[in-house]
Amino acid sequence: MASYVEDLVKCGFLEMKLPRKQRKLTHKIWKRKWFVLRRKSPRGQPRLEYYLTEKACSEGRHRTSISLEDLTSVSHAHSRTHNHSFLLVGMEIKLFLSADTEKESLEWIQLIKELVLPEPKLYPSVQAGDIYGLYEVNVIPTEDSDRLELTGNYLMTVRKEYLCLHSAKTGERVQEWELDHLPRFRLQRLSHLQDLDKVLTFQAGRGCKTGEGHFKFLTQRGREILDCVKLQTQKLANMRQPLPHERHRRPSIDSVPCTRSSENETVDSLTSNSFS
């Protein structure tokens, strides 16, 4: 099951318009199949897979894979019989698909575009300096985010000693948390059918300027944020460790080396349950 979800973006039933040769055999124009959209990973390029059933997918049987690497467009399509159809076009692909609802159709189109045909994004100027990562996030309301009046979209940066939030419009820094005082992070899938958006949760400790708190963000780059925070926190911990020749030195009254260190605990949860 791990290999089934590790690069999953979205899955669900779609109807596929069959090639003319297959129509002669089945006497059908459209056929319902279980589709899986997968991102680029060590297992392969971005691709769309389909199976006879959801069970066949979970068991890895009867898989057909369509590479999206050379996809040139994805858009709504007109159909006399299917109101929620869309079309994928590429160098070697022309695929008509149809979802059960307009909402589902829009989500498939959006996710495929974001995965294979992303539009260039312009970010506001964020104060330069020790920035190790810049990410888009959306605040999920909690008691503590309400207390700090955090709402809507922000840019999140990982810096040498801080995790910061910036205005998505101006780039101005609006909040910051000391990395040394963020004891726990957690990453969750938003839904078992969609794995692009993740819920990033972290706990702020007493040492933070914001005080203790519980904060949640919706982001498509949760894993990158976790990896960046973990790397930077480890660097801070290593910087504070005494040098080898100082470890066995008996400290004098006037000189006591600082050995304080901290490392974030990161938990990657792939359950679809939300935090309470």
From TrEMBL:
<feature type="compositionally biased region" description="Polar residues">
    <location>
        <begin position="267"/>
        <end position="276"/>
    </location>
</feature>
<feature type="domain" description="IRS-type PTB">
    <location>
        <begin position="131"/>
        <end position="243"/>
    </location>
</feature>
<dbReference type="InterPro" id="IPR001849">
    <property type="entry name" value="PH_domain"/>
</dbReference>
<dbReference type="InterPro" id="IPR050996">
    <property type="entry name" value="Docking_Protein_DOK"/>
</dbReference>
<protein>
    <submittedName>
        <fullName>Docking protein 2</fullName>
    </submittedName>
</protein>
<dbReference type="GO" id="GO:0005737">
    <property type="term" value="C:cytoplasm"/>
</dbReference>
<dbReference type="Pfam" id="PF02174">
    <property type="entry name" value="IRS"/>
</dbReference>
<dbReference type="Pfam" id="PF15413">
    <property type="entry name" value="PH_11"/>
</dbReference>
<dbReference type="GO" id="GO:0007169">
    <property type="term" value="P:cell surface receptor protein tyrosine kinase signaling pathway"/>
</dbReference>
<dbReference type="InterPro" id="IPR002404">
    <property type="entry name" value="IRS_PTB"/>
</dbReference>
<dbReference type="InterPro" id="IPR011993">
    <property type="entry name" value="PH-like_dom_sf"/>
</dbReference>
<feature type="region of interest" description="Disordered">
    <location>
        <begin position="240"/>
        <end position="276"/>
    </location>
</feature>
<feature type="domain" description="PH">
    <location>
        <begin position="7"/>
        <end position="117"/>
    </location>
</feature>
